[in-house]
Amino acid sequence: MTSAIEPQKARRLYLLLRDQITSGRLPSGARLPGEPVLAAEHGLARVTVRRALDLLASEGLVRRRPGSGTFVQGPAGARPVIGDLPNLLSGLIAMGRATGVRLLSFEYVAAPAIIAEALLLEPGERVQRSVRVRLIDGQPFSYLTTHVPERVGLSYSEADLAATPLLSLMERSGVTADRATQAIGATLAGPEVAQALDLEVGSALIDLTRVVFDRSGRGVEHLHALYRPDRYAFQMDLVRTGDAGERRWTPAVPRPVKPESPRRPAARRPAP
């Protein structure tokens, strides 16, 4: 058996063990089989097994004790940030105040056709484009690319955006975010995004596109957001409505939004 690390096989074992830990099948405090046992069970070199365990340790899912073994300690750090869909706009400001931000770029550019169409821009209208990484407890969880009409973007500076939620800046300038439309899907991390979010290239991400409109119906923000699914989740409360035979799930009345505060998670993890 080769002694070289096999990255794909190491990642496969890492994902297998990670799923067992996050699902609760391997409870906090459980001792994992030793490297020789895992290597024999999965047909891997010990260095490959060691790499998989190192990945788990880097996420705080296991603790390696020399001479004693490797023990499950469950998810480390604060629980994932939860995005409440019914409280969408107010929740964005609350989340912005409860998390940190790293501004990667800030510039004024010609609006790409897809952005101009989504924001209902006039021909030739420019946009302010920014790229930010949001962090919770110092750990990156989202990669955000925003396009804002130049007439709105000129009301705040690069320093403002690095310190204040974008919706707060827009409201300060007199823009009122009235409604939004969004689509949520999934994608894989490219090299640039993977580096920013501290992931391996090809890791799964939640993919969200949101367009925000003011009271007059003009587009004021186009957001493309990529989230680490282990650090961000979407939540929606539902109620059963309708007459007998035609009952269906309907979004519940929005609940008051409270800023996220760091808390230790239980051994079992939630779901962006």
From TrEMBL:
Gene3D superfamilies: Chorismate lyase-like, Winged helix-like DNA-binding domain superfamily/Winged helix DNA-binding domain. The keyword Chaperone does not apply. It comes from the Bacteria. It holds the Pfam family UTRA. The keyword Transcription regulation applies. Keywords: DNA-binding, Transcription, Transcription regulation. Residues 7-75 form the HTH gntR-type domain. Residues 245-272 are annotated as: Disordered. This is GntR family transcriptional regulator.
